[in-house]
Specification:
globular; alpha/beta; single chain; TIM Barrel; 8-stranded parallel β-barrel
Length: about 290
C-alpha cells in the first residue's frame, strides 16, 4: 500500500507570515496523525522561510512517542543527542534494548500499533545533516537547492560528485536513517542514486503534473516515463517515493505507478484544507492513494 507523508511546510509559512506561533505546526502534525496520516515531512531550508530547527526537534519529539511497528524498521526517533556527519552515531540505549526484546517471530512488543514515519528533506549542508543525525528520523530525503528558488525545480543531476555525498549517505545510514535521493525519472540519475548508496529515490513529479493537465496522450506518455523509471529503480534494489505537485486529480493516474512506496504531498493538501479542514483533507488524500487502481 502506498504511504502518504504530509508535508507541513505550508503551515509554517502561514505562521511565519505574521510571526508568533499561530497556526501551530505541532498542532497541525497532531491533526494529521489523528486523521490517519502514516508520515510527516518537513523541509527546513537555510533561510528558515517556513520550517525552523525548533520545529524539526519538536515534531521529532512528538512522533518519537509513537511506537515502532516492526523490527525491520529504523530505530525509534531521538529528540536529543547531537551527532556529527563526520562520524557514525551509535544506537541509543532504548533502541538497543528494543532490539534485544524481539520475540521469536522477529517482532518487537507492540508491533502493529500506530506508527508515523518522519521524513526530513533538504540539501546536504552541514547544519542540516547534523540536525538529521541528532533527531534521527526514519528517512532523510536529500534534495538539490538552486540559489533563489521558491520550491524544488529538479532532481540531482547525474554528474554530481559522488564521494562527499556518498560519505554523508553512509553516515546517515549508519545512524539508522533511510536515505532517499530526489531525482528526475531518468535512467542515469537513478543509477547515480544507487551508486551514492541511497535506499530509495523520490521521483520529481512536476513534469507529470503538467502533462496530466494536458490530458490524453500527454498524460500516458509521461506516466510511461515514470513507470519505466520505477521499474529500473526496483531492479536496482531501490525503493520508490514520489512528490511535487501531486494532487487529488492526478493521483487517480499516478497511484498506479509500479512499486510506489510513498508520496509526499504538502502544497495541494494544505490548499485543500483551507476549504474542507485539515482532518478531512488528510482523509481525502488517504482515500486517493489507497483506492484500488481501476
Amino acid at each position: 500500500m502506498i504511504r502518504l507523508s504530509v508535508n507541513v511546510n505550508k503551515v509554517a509559512t502561514i505562521r511565519n507570515a505574521r510571526g508568533g506561533r499561530v497556526p501551530s505546526v505541532l498542532d497541525a502534525v497532531r491533526v494529521c496523525v489523528d486523521a490517519g496520516a502514516p508520515g510527516i515531512t518537513v523541509h527546513p531550508r537555510r533561510d528558515a522561510r517556513h520550517i525552523t530547527t525548533a520545529d524539526v526537534r519538536e515534531i521529532g519529539h512528538e512522533l518519537s512517542t509513537l511506537e515502532t511497528a516492526s523490527a525491520d524498521d529504523p530505530p525509534p526517533l531521538a529528540s536529543h543527542g547531537a551527532a556529527s556527519h563526520g562520524g557514525v552515531s551509535p544506537k541509543r540505549p532504548d533502541a538497543q534494548k528494543a532490539d534485544r526484546r524481539q520475540t521469536a517471530d522477529g517482532e518487537r512488543p507492540g508491533a502493529g500499533r500506530k506508527r508515523v514515519e518522519y521524513n526530513i528533506e533538504g540539501d546536504p549542508r552541514p547544519d542540516l545533516i547534523d540536525l538529521v543525525l541528532e533527531v534521527r528520523p526514519h528517512q532523510c530525503t536529500l534534495v538539490p537547492v538552486r540559489p533563489g528558488e521558491i520550491t524544488s525545480q529538479a532532481g540531482w543531476p547525474s554528474n554530481t560528485p559522488r564521494d562527499e555525498l556518498g560519505r554523508i549517505v553512509a553516515a546517515l545510514k549508519a545512524a539508522g536513517v533511510r536515505v532517499s535521493m530526489f531525482v528526475d525519472p531518468v535512467a542515469d540519475r537513478i543509477h547515480w542514486a544507487r551508486d551514492v548508496g541511497a535506499d530509495r529515490v523520490e521521483l520529481y513529479t512536476e513534469p507529470f503534473a503538467r502533462a496530466f493537465e494536458q490530458g490524453g496522450s500527454a498524460t500516458e506518455a509521461s506516466f510511461r516515463t515514470y513507470a519505466n523509471a520505477a521499474d529500473l529503480a526496483h531492479d536496482l534494489g531501490l525503493g520508490i517515493n514520489a512528490g511535487h505537485d501531486l494532487d487529488l486529480k492526478n493521483l487517480t493516474r499516478f497511484r498506479a505507478l509500479p512499486y510506489l512506496d510513498e508520496v509526499s504531498i504538502g502544497h495541494a493538501l494544505i490548499s485543500h484544507a483551507l476549504f474542507v479542514g485539515l482532518r478531512r483533507a488528510v482523509r481525502d488524500y488517504l482515500t486517493a492513494v489507497e483506492s484500488p487502481v481501476a
